[in-house]
Fold each of these.
Amino acid sequence: MQIPSSLSLFRHRTPTFFRHRQNHHPLLITASKHHQNQPNVSRKQPPSKNLLKAKKNLTSKKDFSTLSPILSPDHTPTDLSDSQAIGTVAASQANFMRVIVTTEPEKIEDSSSSSKVGTELLCVVRAVLKKIKRRVLVGDKVVVGSIDWVDRRGMIENVFQRSSDILDPPVANVDRLLVLFSVEQPQLESFVLTRFLIEAESTGIPITLALNKAELVDQQVLSDWDTRLRSWGYEPLFCSVDSKMGLDSLASVLRDQTTVIVGPSGVGKSSLINALRNKPNSQVEVDNWFDPIMGSKWFEDQRVGKVSTRSGRGKHTTRNVSLLPLGGGGYLADTPGFSQPSLLKVTKQSLAQYFPEIRKMLGDNEQAKCAFNDCLHVGEPGCIVKGDWERYPLYFQLLDEIRIREEFQLRTFGTKREDDVRYKVGDMGVQQAEPRLEPKKHRRQSRKRINQSILDELNELDDDEDLLDDENDPILRALKNENL
Ligand SMILES: Nc1nc2c(ncn2[C@@H]2O[C@H](COP(=O)(O)OP(=O)(O)OP(=O)(O)O)[C@@H](O)[C@H]2O)c(=O)[nH]1
Ligand SMILES: [Zn+2]
């Protein structure tokens, strides 16, 4: 078994970058206010020896004032040390993240012959980020520190603010949604397509609409769809993975961007992902990201599908997604997005703005606004949205569906705002709604509570010892060694 030299991950507890920024960064000062004193914690149950050491380290030595500020997306740190770099999280598995370096310290660039940009680093997430619930997602731009350039390891120290994040699949900083349908097999159907488009529009992320399997129908059918979809407000790209038609245009649209493909089953999403990666007839690469570094045996043991003895449920069952680097630059998520659009983020009031046709009617007529601000555009007097467009009936149909859902929410939870309800996918994938707790900012965590949650999390690690036993887990072993 290959044992990574993860010791080096833990050497620099307080990276110079953060110490430096603390002097002038207002966000940092706010963020660190509540954590300045040393925590004073009582323990409920005796944890195992090695974790006890880890806890002691966290609760006595850790300086909480270095809690990381949220970095603005276009902030470029000029004071990166030799062991720091900026990168993009391309994949995550168990406790590890694969980060591709995008910006390196200038010193490194000068002194070494080859650039470190593009280097893949195997990283852990700095414990304090987990404690303050700063989740690191695939797609996140991050600061990596404590880098060992030889062994290609590091520790994620901070996360830049996201331009967007989507939940299905969980990816940050998505630049584009590629809505993929096929003209045949399965046949293109306007209502299903509209549902996907509305769901995509509701993310606010730019959309490209592509229609695959174009080789299966004649030119007339393509041109009819082209006319129709243009009247909806889209410029469809026709393509065929089989005949390679249109793949170059698609590749150039996706260049230098992070893209998630969405669309129904069977339209060719996986085939297209493979084609754009020039990997004909191969499985989408998901599983071997970490193997070269971790050694597959060890990694297998950490994988999805292990069943917890306690809960009887699978652990780590969250969907793993990786960003696959595209030849011409940019990334493609290997996991297609929302296979069944739920439209849960869409309200009666917001639905209209997700129809380009309605947007155009309202936008084109600066002074000709609807008589009422909250007009639903269903034929109210003074409404400027007339019924002379193809998808008007579909708008009604979706409005009806959303109205029924909102009434159900109102009856069940006393609120119809999507934000107040969260949906848990329960057994057998059935969605269950439950009222959301008060937003976090109204229940600011006390220091004691934060400290307790640190201990709780470490206790959870204790509980998970079947999964992360210290002899086999390089990180726990490193922690243990460091504290000896
Ligand atoms: N005729 C034709 N068939 C295609 C084309 N692209 C993909 N297919 C076939 O369509 C079928 C479905 O392709 P997939 O790539 O699995 O589709 P998918 O969208 O990933 O499907 P799910 O995994 O169910 O979501 C496969 O049999 C492909 O070979 C194409 O351009 N033309
Ligand atoms: Zn109106």
Amino acid sequence: MSETEAIAKGDSPLDLSLSAAELDARREHITDFIADQLDAAGVDRAVLGLSGGVDSSLVAHLAVEAIGAENLHGLVMPSSVNDEATMSDAERVAMELGIEYDVIEINPIVDTFLDAYPEAEGEKMAVGNVRVRARAVLNYLVANTENALVLGTGNRTESLTGYFTKYGDGAVDCHPIANLYKQQVRQLARHVGVPQEIAERTPTAGMWVDQTDEGELGVEYDTLDSILALAIEGEVGTSATARIVGVDREIVERVRDLFEQSGHKRSMPPAPAKL
Ligand SMILES: Nc1ncnc2c1ncn2[C@@H]1O[C@H](COP(=O)(O)OP(=O)(O)OC[C@H]2O[C@@H]([n+]3cccc(C(=O)O)c3)[C@H](O)[C@@H]2O)[C@@H](O)[C@H]1O
Ligand SMILES: Nc1ncnc2c1ncn2[C@@H]1O[C@H](COP(=O)(O)OP(=O)(O)OP(=O)(O)O)[C@@H](O)[C@H]1O
Ligand SMILES: [Mg+2]
């Protein structure tokens, strides 16, 4: 995937928004899920990477409701490509929720990988993925040390498009918000009290300077959610989806490609059949 010139926006995206009653039901369903996951694993604590983005801020709020502030450990892990306002919002979330958190700079870790394998220098995606995977290693360092689970922040839109790093931000013990499309993540975030600036911040993976999800995916989130709901999770054909959402057919095809090419990220690594 590379940064595209234009970001496609449908003329008539679907309304996937949730009512207040549905938001309350999701809130309870997800907090119950988090508590159940910890119970089933026989642990009291959870670890979560805090990025100052809406996904992790929402999971932080829901986890505090589920298991109590004293049982959640946040990790804020800046690198040279993250902007300062976003990183200070990550700390703000931790402070407002009253959870324990650490700030761990990952540049030295990433540099060590590049010293070990200088051939990757300048490879934007490969190096960006090292940043993401370095955070996963740190999450598990804390989880192992504190007998905790790592909470994921992946949403339905990211999962269906494969828009995450395999064994990076995808390396977690459970996925509390995986049933929510991105627009529903934003909605639930506002509903549970995530600060407005964070709920509305332009989504970024923070893997390189000025990266944005929508720029890289080439389609804006409400439109992408609609295409996924109709063409991927529903049984609506490509042309009909394009007509309903109000985008060129080529955009729907691109989303189908993202889904099909990312199947390997949504399943366990395959092994040969037993003989
Ligand atoms: N068919 C196949 N069957 C089995 N394995 C397959 C495969 N095709 C590739 N692979 C493996 O997968 C690797 C590529 O996958 P991966 O390493 O994940 O890398 P890749 O998918 O190329 O890049 C990660 C994407 O996720 C985005 N991202 C990452 C992290 C966070 C966020 C965010 O929203 O915050 C977004 C990032 O911007 C980028 O677009 C290949 O190097 C190969 O090892
Ligand atoms: N600098 C960081 N420090 C700590 N954790 C991070 C950092 N960057 C990313 N993460 C972790 O990786 C996850 C995936 O990133 P992603 O960008 O998809 O989510 P987000 O930043 O919470 O929301 P958004 O997608 O709107 O930017 C984050 O939710 C967070 O748990
Ligand atoms: Mg982000």
